[in-house]
Structure formats: C-alpha cells, structure tokens
Amino acid sequence: MDGIWVQVLVALIAGACGAGVMLAVVCARRRRAREAAGPAAVPPATQSVASPSPLPDKWLNEVQRCEQAVYRAARAVDAVSSTQARRQLQTVVRRMDAELPNVRALSELGRGLESSESRDDAVVGRVQSQLDDAAARFGMVTDHVLEAVVELVAAPDLSRIHEQVLVLRDQFPLLRPMSAVFGPPPGSAPARALMTAA
Q1: Is the pLDDT of residue 116 over 80?
Q2: Taking the C-alpha atoms of 166, 87, 141 and 137 in order, what is their torsion angle to the nearest 10 degrees?
Q3: Closest-CA residue to 113 (of 186, 178, 190)
C-alpha cells in the first residue's frame, strides 16, 4: 500500500511542476506580445496607475478633515471604561456626526458654484471660508474631547466630565447658518429692519 501513496505523491509533484512550466510559458508569451504591440496595447488599468495623480480636491479635503475629527473623537470615547462618562461624551460625538451631512452638502455647493459659468467669487470665497471654519471647529471640539478623556484617565471625576460636556454642547452647531454664505456681505446694512414691538 505504501507504494501506491508514493506513486500518487510523485504524480502530484510532477503535475505541479508541469503546471508551473506551462504558466511560465504563457506569461512569457503574453509579455512578448505586449512588448511587440507597444504601449498602446497596455490595458487601461495599467495606464491609469502610471499616470500622475490629479490635483487634490480642496472641497473634499475639508470634508475629510471633519470626518477624521469625528472618527478620532469616537475612537477616544469608545476607549473610556466608565459607562456614564462614555455616554456623556458620546452625546458630543453624535452631535458632531449629525453635522457631517451639512458639511458634505456645503462642500458640494462650493464645488458646484466654483465650476458654474456664472461664478460669483465672493460667494465661493464665503463657502470656502465656512468650510475652513467648520473644519477648525470640528478639530477644536475633538481636541477638547481628547483632553477630557486624558483627564478622566488621570483622575476619574464624573462631575468634571459632565461640566466639560455641557461646555462642549454649547459650541454647537459647528456650522454657521447658510445666511452667512448667501446673505449680504458683512458690514452692509440690512435691506429692511423690523419694527420694535409696542
């Protein structure tokens, strides 16, 4: 019976060697055919890898900064061992996450305004300024969340965490209203004032 297993093993090894040789021959033929055909025959996927990368999208960059801030804050809060402190800090992270669709919409608005034929540079600049401000505010809130987590690890004090969460909640909303983008330029008088109640 041992002789049969030896023969099976030899047959498997011989088959694997034969398959390897055939694979090498096929690859060599394909390589020669591509070299003979020139660069035009290179598949499109290979050509796109060799092409230089496009310029970075400034609108997408600001969205990614905000998303990264939310991600960092969420990971830090998830590491908190105190359930009560973690729940309080998660309310801040959820508020940040809830504003991300508005950041994305603002980014799309800016991209659309920038590429339109009737482009208003002042409005595009205000949209860009609003996105820059939002990314900075998201980053600041994340930094405060990280500081709160570090303080909690160093000296567990739930009342201090509660106070910090209240301060952070007062920072919301992180995005200014859309009237700041499409409203009159700063410093201009309003077109109509409301009458004071008698």
Answers
A1: no
A2: -90
A3: 178
